[in-house]
Amino acid sequence: MKKTVSILLSVLMLFALCVPAFAAPQKIEAPAPKNGTTLVKTDLSELPSEDGYFTVTIPADTAIKWGSTAAVDLSYTVESHLSRAKRLNVTVDASGAMKTTDGAYSIAYQLNNGGETAYHATEPVVFPAVSCPLNLTVAQAAWDTAVVETYSDTLTFNVSVVAA
C-alpha cells in the first residue's frame, strides 16, 4: 500500500510540474542605445623617471698599439624616450694626454682630430639608436718622442637630460 501511495504521489507531483502557462505574448521593446566612454591612458609608474628614459652605450677599455697613428674607434650610441620638453646631451671630457702611472711622461692625443665630441639631441625621442662617431688619434711626432712605458687616460662621458 505504501508503495502504491508513494507512486501515486510521485505521478501527481509530475503532473503538477507540467502545468502549461497561458500567458499572452507581450511585445518587448529594446531600450534606446546609449553611448559610453572608456578612458585609455598610458601608465608611467614603471618608468625609472618622470622625464622618461635613455640608453647611452660607451666603449669599454681600449688599447692602442704602440706607434699606431691610425684612428681608434671610440664611437658611442644614444637612444632616448623622454618627455616633450626634455632633450639628451652627451659630452666627452678628456685631458688630451695619456700619462704614465707616476705622471712623469705623457703622450698627446686628439679626439675626432680636433672636431666635435658632444652629442645634443634635437628631439625628445631618439629611436632607433644613433651612433656618435668618436675617434682618438696619436700623431707620429708624439710617438717619436715618447718613452716606452704604459700610458693611460680616462675619458669621461657626461650624460644629462636638459630642458628643450
Describe the structure.
The structure is a single chain. This protein has 164 residues and is of the alpha+beta class. It has 2 helices and 11 strands, in the order αββββββββββαβ. It has a 3-stranded antiparallel sheet with strand order 1-3-9, with no helix packed on it. A 3-stranded antiparallel sheet has the order 2-10-7, with no helix packed on it. A 3-stranded antiparallel sheet has the order 8-4-11, with no helix packed on it. The longest helix is centred in the first third of the chain and has 16 residues, at 2-17. It is elongated. The mean pLDDT is 89.
Proportion of residues in β-strands: 25-35%
Q: From the alpha-carbon coordinates, what is the Rg to the nearest angstrom?
A: 40 Å
The shape is elongated
Biggest sheet descriptor:
3 strands, antiparallel
Order of SSEs: HEEEEEEEEEEHE
**Parts with pLDDT < 50 across at least 5 consecutive residues:** none
Average pLDDT number: 89
Number of strands: 11
- Fraction of helical residues: 10-25%
Strand arrangement in the largest pleated sheet: 1-3-9
User: Helix tally?
Assistant: 2
For the termini, the CA-CA separation is: 100 Å
Task: Briefly note the structural class of the backbone.
Answer: alpha+beta
